[in-house]
Amino acid sequence: MRISEIKRKTAETDIVLKLNIDGRGSSVIDSGCGFLDHMLTLFARHGRFDLEVTCKGDTQVDDHHTVEDIGICLGMAFKEALGDKKGICRYGWSAIPMDETFVLSAVDFSGRDLLGYAESIPAEKIGSFDTELAEEFWLSFVRNCGCTLHLKQLAGTNSHHIIEASFKAAARALSAAAKIETGFEDEIPSTKGVL
């Protein structure tokens, strides 16, 4: 089983995150940010990851540090759980429709961090959640996971739907890329011999 546990404590957040890449999609999420809890719950379900997150953050300031730092921890967890990446498919993609919204995601567990974020979210807030934090989450994730992740919105006018479709698309793409490729379990999927 490819599992990891990340504990990260700063002056702004105190986070414990547990990830099982080969899970069933179960989750227990308590980030202190309701909208992020919703996104991480559906991320786990649609990626078939088992995910537990607890965070005590300085949400009396705003949700920025909580969202950013959980992104950091999730990226670290994926990197740790994938290990040397032997046998993984490496690449994954997904296209997710959600009502009027349509989002594409593609990932490469290359060891190189890059976020291609092409989304236009009309509202500045969803409840108390600053929508600009969605990009901040994924930026923190890719920097600490060491992957290339593209999220591209092809349609959509509802801010909740756009961000939700993005989390679902990313989950499906990450799940596909992390799968072990039958017959190639002992190979690194790179001509370099290392990822």
Overall average residue pLDDT: 97
Flag low-confidence runs.
Answer: none
The number of E-state strands comes to: 10
In DSSP terms, counting alpha (H) and pi (I) runs of 4 or more, how many helices? 4
The helix content, as a percent range, equals: 25-40%
Give the radius of gyration.
16 Å
Termini gap: 20 Å
Major sheet: size, sense and barrel closure? 4 strands, mixed
Shape: globular
Q: Taking strands numbered 1, 2, ... along the chain, how are they ordered across the largest sheet?
A: 1-2-4-3
Structural class, please? alpha+beta
Beta-strand residue percentage = 25-35%
Helix/strand order = EEEHEHEEEEEHEH
Describe the overall structure.
The chain is of the alpha+beta class. It contains 4 helices and 10 strands, in the order βββαβαβββββαβα. The strands form 3 sheets. It has a 4-stranded mixed sheet, with helices on one face. Helix 1 runs parallel beside helix 4 and helix 2 runs parallel beside helix 3. The longest helix has 20 residues. The chain is globular and about 50 Å long. The two termini are 20 Å apart. The mean pLDDT is 97.
